[in-house]
Amino acid sequence: MRRAxxxxxxxxxxxxxxxxPAVAAPATPQPAxxxxxxxPVGWQLRGNELTWHAPAPAGAGPAAVEFYAxxxxxxxxxxxxxxxxxxxxxxxxxxxxxLADSRRNDLQARxxxxxxxxxxxxxxxxxxxxxxxxxNPVDPGVKGPYATITGEYHLDDVTLPDLKTKVEMQAVVVxxxxxxxxxxxxxxxxxxxxxxFVAQKGVQQWPCPAGTEPIPSYRGFRRSQELLASQxxxxxxxxxxxxxxxxxxxxxxxxxxxxxxxxxxLTQWAAWMSDIRTAPAIVRQSPxxxxxxxxxxxxxxxxEGVNRAAIDSLAPGxxxxxxxxxxxxxxxxxxxxxxxQNPAPDVPSAVILxxxxxxxxxxxxxxxxxxxxxxxxxxxxxxxxxxxxxNHNFWNSVWEAKPIGDDWPSRPDSPDPVCEKTAPSRLTAxxxxxxxxxxxxxxxxxxxxxDDRVRPLLDGSGRRAPSADPARVYNQAIGGARQPVIEPATxxxxxxxxxxxxxxxxxxxxxxxxxxxxxxxxxxVPNEPGRxxxxxxxxxxxTPIKFRPAQAxxxxxxxxxxxxxxxxxxxxxxxxxxxxTGTDGRRTVLDDIxxxxxxxxxxxxxxxSPEVRVALRGLGTVATLELIPRTASGRAWLIDAWGWxxxxxxxxxxxxPRVDIGRITEPEGDGARRTLVVPxxxxxxxxxxxRLFTYDPESDVVVPTExxxxxxxxxxxxxxxxxxxxxxxxxxxxxxxxxxITGVAVGDYVGGVVLENDDPLPAFTVTPGDQTVPExxxxxxxxxxxxxxxxxxxxxxxxxxxxxxxxxxxxxxDPDWFLFNxxxxxxxxxxxxxxxGAVEWTSIEPxxxxxxxxxxxxxxxxxEPAEHxxxxxxxxxxxxxxxxxxxxxxxxxxxx
Length: 896
What we know:
51 strands, about 10% helix
């Protein structure tokens, strides 16, 4: 998503359920003077167009590329087709001012918080030491009694929300052989990466261009499917390449489309179960699927899509044509993205956080646990699993090989002690996939079958599954049979500690350096109210740190106090004494606790710790909690504390009103600035609160506004100022985001305005039209526009067969040029260029009129007649991923 803060002026005027003063239309921001000479290598600034040229393809994975000036987020750039050139148009005065000082040299390109354009300083750390957990008596990773059968189906392509090109309905089914009765269904959805490949080079287009093959990402979960099928589950893994190729400019990064695709497949399964005669062969050969018992498993962006499918299944949005004929009883989210940060609160879930994830670097999947707190009734269990030594890509076996491969960079000269391939703690691809299979089976056993014996693997009880060895997997959880004791808020009384803000850019922030999955920011929102933790620091042991909730917690009937605390990576265990004072004034000293830290790596050291528990010894109430540091000095953060008992509660979805941010798409038009009104709709019944985030360009701040939802709340209207122009440019996006506080479910979390360009592209000219050149001279054309554009446009020359005479072949051009421009195709065997995928691409930059395209030819030393290169001009429009004819056909004659 392109950040509207840099390309829009957003009014903060509410009507309907909101009362807020009107804001006059602000003046159009003017570009501040700047110079590319002051920018780092690889960066350019032309007018107000900021460009970064990546040394290698970037942005194909799940994490969106973002530009920063220091700590300031400038926005999400548009990617060229080669995934090496990224452009962002800056129209916000504050963003331009950040680049105006010629002495600034802190431009950064990041993805998921990880630096792309330069190597960040690396920390020297000791070899990691983490404890081995006791084994759980029941191991869900053990193969079951059934043999398995496998097959695929491929139905007609379907149209999905927000996408121009239809998406495939393709899947692989693995099911038990010989099982009787109706069996639960487990559905898998892969993540986003390249969709096609040729010669180990990735391409992100759909359908795949000629000469390339699809990457079958949907086949990457066979180990998990085989295990579950052996245990009596029907499994299906679906393909989503058509979404991955089109989601780069979607406001929600394809989340709504992925939900729709999942539910289209489930709709088909429901129809097939009603009339098995209509089903594909592999479905007819499989046991019947019980759609009242569905487990969803999603990896990367597929994880976020799975979560949205759960929300849409419980409460479909306005006008949603897909009727729910199934029940989702649980989810496993593997290294998921969390752009929206609106988890399904009433569907039990487990989230895997890979300790060596170099793509979803912040491990923001923790949001699917933390973000459920207080939103609904809290009966559903939500646990997170930190896997030491696991990367992002190897959960999917298809992603092991090029063009994808290991996302963690190898540095043999200075190896990371945790994540380098040769590190003892680093998992192989097979080991990592076994972890995924084991915990998919654990989620199925607990969430679908209600087998409480596997709960200790998911609820923070500190047990391991031997089938996942040698992986070290740590766990924390909320929900289930828990009673809130300490939830950091402004009403919490503290002694010896301070309340800190999880997402904040001021001195009140919980962390001044480092990354914590608990503190992942919401999209482009720099300061998010309502998210707190307690920060503790001490330089001597023994002084109690006291917590006094506004109301004493009743813990009668609970076995233990469960604390989610964080200590700095590589510093654990950090020890505390624990004492509790009840409402009767009696102080009880409990056992000591030790908070473990995760291994510190040289590149990634997340502030995350497994849950710790201390026995309550029959206490009835907690009016004051004391933590007494036993370690000489240190820092720690309390996320929350709960009364816990060993019990699996049945999740009971509450009837929550649903919130959807509207989306308006309309032509840009000409003339004066005008206002468009974006509706925020509320459907269903119930009371709750939601927070909307908009941007005030005059004060350069994000404005959060809390909306109280009740039976009378149906629509909130948000006006947005837009400014038309008369020049061809990209479609402009003006987003608004929403996040649940309590008592609501958020569907379309992001909306706003898409202002479509309606100005025609000026006609291209190519000079010289036809030409004759010597064999070793090279063929050069100049592509021109009659008037400068506001955005870059990519143009290329595509070889086509000449009308007469022999054609230039692969042996007639520079081999390095061919390899680079033909997606890695081999030069041999020698063949005409029109039979290859070679296209020389360049760009006409903003404010300029021309660009040069050169095809370097070579002398082959063979006497031969003149050869011809006939080519047509192609263009990639800024909002498209495919090339279209855009100009004349030209012919070059090459002579000896």
